[in-house]
Design a protein that fits this description.
about 425 residues, about 30% helix, hydrolase activity, acting on carbon-nitrogen (but not peptide) bonds, Chitin deacetylase 9-like protein, 10 helices, CE4, globular, five-stranded parallel sheet, alpha/beta, TIM Barrel
Amino acid sequence: METGTQSLSLLLVLLAMTVTVVLTTKLQEDAPPCQPAKCTVPDCHCSSTDSPTGIPVKDLPHFVVLSFDDAVTITNFDFYLGIGDRKNPNGCKVQMSFFVSHENTDYTLVNELHRRGHEIAIHSVTHKSDVQNYWRNMSKEGWTAEVVDQIDMLNMYGKIPREDMQGWRTPFLEVGGNTMYDALQDAGIKYDCSWPTLHYTPWFVESDGTINGALWPYTLDFFSIQEQTVGTKPTQSFPGMWVAPMTDLQDNRGIECSMLDACQSDEDELETSADAVTQLLKRNFKAGLSKRSPFGIYVHHSWFVDYPVRTEGMKQFLDYMSAYPEVYIVSMRQLIAWMKDPVPLDQLKDHEAFQCPDKNPPTNCPSENHKNCPYTAPLPISQAEVYMKMCVGTCPTYYPYLNNVEGKDPYTK
């Protein structure tokens, strides 16, 4: 009897091991090449230089996405308002995307940007600078904490609705492969905008003389054709997870730059000439006119500090685009919404994602409730002191941070 019991136990163990191996193997399978017939909007779109519909190019809207990374502070808030003080052809104010990190962020100002209709997206809690030892090869638990804790703090201290935070950009564009996308999907993130591309731009010439053109946003249901220039490429299927490719710009030396900050020029003309800034942006924008593929301007406010000509050049470019009736300056969330429900330019005014927000919507972060919370060393950041301004409530006892969202635990080195 004992022998029979042992045999049954051994059989169950072997069966469990077999199931585990099968499941693990299934999870680790590479996604197959995209099959357009099985990948249609609103939930799926192949990685492709084609728009998601049969709409003729002449009838497509031409989307320009303007996004900013890092902390929102009193130092950059007025700059953002100045850049965004313009309207699209439908009469609505332009919307921009802000990928927000935690350190030094004024959550009351984040709330005000959101109240004005701009998109608030996630850019991690820590934004640690050690790419090699921190972001590269990060575990799923690590990615999850960076994403979910920042969502929690934006909601808790900035009163940003959770459902409105749909996008992610990883610090230093260090894409984390399957592990990162697994964490993003579990955290409820709908799209990632961290992945630069050189080969899929409207200007890069391949060795055989061809120009591929720019990719449109796509989902990771199937294997992506996009090359990996930074970090690790995902290989598995993540159904419904959108990727908004960061199409490289070509700087004034002919070299690629994934973010405007990285663009260079001869003789520092981007530091001394507003026209040089404007012409750089114009040249890159015009390169994609023939297909009206989305044009992204991804930048940090710090690029404009100390160089007023850069702000002037940016504004000149945005003014220049107003001459194009098909051009809409939109948030990345609006672009993804259009990808799910694409309509011609003449129907855009009726699209739910492109309705004008209220001119003066009520605030859920009244100034009389603001709290400016001071914190001193020891801190989990490289500062002797830091302030965190929030919408409402009692200041947390300790500086809120990764794995300590509510600031209940002291930081010890």
